[in-house]
Amino acid sequence: MDAAQILRHIDPDALARDTLAFLKVRSETGDEAAASRFFADLLRREGFEAIFDEAAPGRPNVYARLPGAARSPSLLLNGHLDTIPIGNSDPPGRDGDWIVGRGAEDMKGGLAAMLHAASAIRKAGLRLAGDLWLTAVIGHETPIGKKEGPLRLIEHLRSPADGMPRADAALIVEGPAAIWAASLGSTIFTVTISSPCGILHTIKVPYAENPARWVGRLLAEFERLEASFDAGPRHALCGREQLNVGIVRAGDYPNRLPTPATVTGTWRWLPGKTHAHVRAALEALCARLAAESGLDFRASFEGHREPFETPAAHPLVHALESAGSAVLGKAPERIGMALVCDANLYSNDAAVPTVCYGPAHQTAHSDHERVSLAQLVSCARIYALTAVHFCGMAEP
Hints:
By secondary structure, this protein is α+β, with helices and mostly antiparallel strands. The protein has helices at 3-7, 12-23, 33-45, 104-123, 148-158, 211-231, 275-293, 315-328, 342-349, 373-391; strands spanning 51-56, 59-66, 75-80, 93-95, 98-100, 132-137, 169-172, 179-183, 185-194, 234-235, 239-240, 242-249, 261-269, 296-305, 308-309, 334-337, 354-356, 370-372.
């Protein structure tokens, strides 16, 4: 393989233009159809057949295939089309090396880079041995998104059908410029504390039976759990188990009993543990506090993701390392994060080994979101060479 033959077909100016044009297409979660059409048009312009796959009514995923010559390993490149609400974010624009606007880093820049990577392989006149799939999904950003797009794609990966994506490994084009190969598991929990007395004047209820008092006790129990996690085992890439609280709600008037009271937070756990273990632990804690207080404690859960880890010896990791060495002069670092991502879904629910590699993870969800063109170009080059290393080259 002549890497230079591929890389010279990645045009930084064209990549910048496509990224900026993409940012001007509004695609807040739940309203991604315009972005689906825009990305499909880019695919067609570059000579690909765009496949629409409705993941939710009027909200299609978009797929395209660069066909391989044989049944060699197939690679799926993946990203999401939706963004969080635009809000007060900077309008789309260009500031030197920076491309600015909602979705720049998270993650239309990565999608544009993956398109230019696949197009460079085509323009170089090279034939991969295995298929390269480009996939762009809707419904990623929670809580509005319910992972409709990733879950629809997972259906195809679990039960491959003609003309639909299949993969031996997946590369998500988002995140730091490193091989993000592991994440903790995660769930959002809510503990609801209710008094059998219902809402009445606090003069009628001793403080010891006030749900607000037991919110404090629950938070103290969480503090003890956190201390045990801090003293416990650590994953080499992701660190330790974590529990934290983001929302506490109770009461509406100074002398009315605050029932129900709720505590909502996130519990993140290590590979080797499962959501079932976490659920059982929190439900046991609720049962104990209910017995002590005489109040009703109930735990509910949403958005849980099991941990994932793609080992250092996996061929996709090796392909990324080889590609990075060719582009950057050294292999990218292999990292883990406490954050979950769609790799948790593809690795566990579709049984497809997955890693992430993106241009950056610094300004996502901020009002000053931006991405470096130099990093996008680097990513496009790395994605192209990773596909060649993983899928192999067809015999002349």
